[in-house]
Amino acid sequence: MKFVRFFVISILWAAAFTASAGTLENDVWSPAGCGAMPEAPVIQSGSVEAFNKSIATINAWQEQLQAYHDCMVKEANADSATINRSATAEQTRIEEAIEKLNAETAKARQEAERKASSPSPSLAPPAGSAPGTQGY
Predict the structure, then answer these.
(1) 79: burial class by Cβ within 10 Å (0-12, 13-18, 19+)?
(2) Three-class secondary structure of residue 80 per DSSP
(3) What is the three-class DSSP state of 24?
(4) Does the pLDDT value for residue 122 go beyond 80?
(5) What residues have CB less than 8 Å from 90, skipping those under 6 apart?
(6) How far apart are alpha carbons 93 and 77 in whole angstroms?
(7) What is the DSSP string of 37-64?
């Protein structure tokens, strides 16, 4: 059982370092596979025709921006899930280490108490025996 748990934790731990979707640099997270965020178009107001073309460009930009947003959210959620799994695995590893040490401590305490309560061999004759009589 411990081997299986260790194996699962090892797999999750490895996944934490290989399955990241975004990048974290200087405390700033950014998506890695979404490309650059589309730049907002310039609105032309020189004529009705130019303005109407701007509106068409804005509509296309909004579609591109929505695709970028969806990709970014997907990557962020994937990274959050990986972090959560890794942190949970590490917490489990810590809890197991505490449980193991507590069990070892309890066993050592019982052994020490057992040794302290058992009569140790002594050279004194048993109580109630008189000198010259068979005490042993």
Answers:
(1) buried
(2) helix
(3) strand
(4) no
(5) 13
(6) 24
(7) PPPPPPPP-SSHHHHHHHHHHHHHHHHH
- Is pLDDT larger for residue 42 or for residue 127? 42
In the chain, count H helices and then E strands. 2, 2
Rounded to a whole number of angstroms, the distance between the first and last alpha carbons of the chain is 52
Q: What is the predicted pLDDT for the residue at 116?
A: 85
Radius of gyration of the chain (CA): 36
Residue 66: exposure state from Cβ atoms within 10 A (0-12, 13-18, ≥19): exposed
- Is residue 120 exposed (0-12), middle (13-18) or buried (19+ Cβ within 10 Å)? exposed
- Ramachandran angles phi, psi of 135, nearest 5°: -100, -20
Hey, where are the domains in the chain? 2-100
